[in-house]
Design goal:
This protein is α+β, with helices and mostly antiparallel strands. 21% of the residues lie in helices and 39% in strands. The radius of gyration is 18 Å and the shape is globular.
Length: 280
């Protein structure tokens, strides 16, 4: 029986999790075959007519402990999602009784570890600093883009544009983020961060995520902001970042950018056959 026909007949199990309020629907395709389409992702992602999420993450079988695929709430895909990766790593570590797991994504192979006190760390890999890797539409200085406010561009498997501001709370993020997500310098659109330096190891940050909008937290955005701040000499390479949803810790090491924070499994459920049928 085709995977989606089977799901239409029996329903599709899922988990709802979040990392600092950055919330996810997680489908375990290892246990229950599922084929996610953009229309299905959009339907599940609708906060009134579906479940609602910032990202949908699918756990599949692979050469490592699992292979992960990410969808935004508008149905587009993303190569990286740091907080969802931490959430899934926590599931897999608890499931197998391990303190470390290896995950493959479109971003590459990522290592995740138990950091103690129910905190989970993941190595998000080396940042992409060259214009064509991020990618940008033309060759420019990624440290200070030719955009009003002189933001910094960083790739973490997805593109980022970080503005350093005097007061992150004063920025009208809905208008600001929507404006720069589609800036012509970013052919694949971009995540937008407004970051306020509190101290040499402390940042306040707010996030507009491409394909999503305002989010309470973003792991890849946190990594990108920490890298941008260190490159500009505003902080060291180890920082604490205060997000709308809580605190995350970033450490830019020789082997990549490590991100550490809490995760929470909120509930599990099943998408009904009727709901799945309505999405085609």
């Amino acid at each position: 029986m085709p995977a989606m026909q089977q799901a239409h007949d029996t329903g599709l199990p899922f988990m709802k999790m979040h990392g600092l309020g950055n919330d996810f629907v997680i489908v375990d395709a290892r246990a229950h075959a599922a084929s996610i389409t953009p229309a299905l992702a959009r339907g599940i992602g609708h906060r009134q007519f579906g479940v609602g999420f910032d990202q949908l993450a699918v756990i599949g079988n692979g050469d490592a402990d699992a292979h992960l695929v990410f969808y935004n709430s508008d149905g587009s895909t993303s190569a990286a999602c740091g907080n969802a990766t931490r959430c899934i790593a926590r599931i897999l570590m608890d499931e197998a009784g391990k303190s470390e797991v290896t995950l493959t994504t479109a971003r590459g192979t990522l290592i995740a570890r138990d950091a103690g006190d129910r905190l989970t760390s993941v190595n998000m890999g080396e940042p992409q600093l060259n214009w064509n890797e991020i990618p940008l539409a033309e060759e420019v200085d990624t440290l200070e883009l030719p955009i009003e406010g002189g933001p910094t561009a960083t790739g973490m498997g997805n593109p980022h544009c970080t503005f350093f501001v005097e007061d992150a709370e004063a920025i009208p993020l809905a208008e600001f983020g929507a404006r720069y997500e589609y800036h012509p310098l970013y052919p694949e659109r971009t995540n937008v961060q407004v970051a306020q330096i509190i101290g040499p190891d402390h940042i306040r940050m707010r996030v507009w995520e491409r394909g999503v909008g305002i989010t309470l937290a973003s792991g890849s955005s946190s990594c990108a902001t920490a890298v941008a701040a260190a490159r500009r000499g505003l902080t060291g390479r180890t920082v604490q970042i205060e997000l709308d949803g809580g605190t995350i810790w970033i450490d830019w090491r020789e082997d990549g950018v490590w991100m550490t924070g809490p995760t929470r499994h909120v509930f599990s459920g099943t998408l009904t056959p009727e709901f799945l049928e309505s999405l085609g």
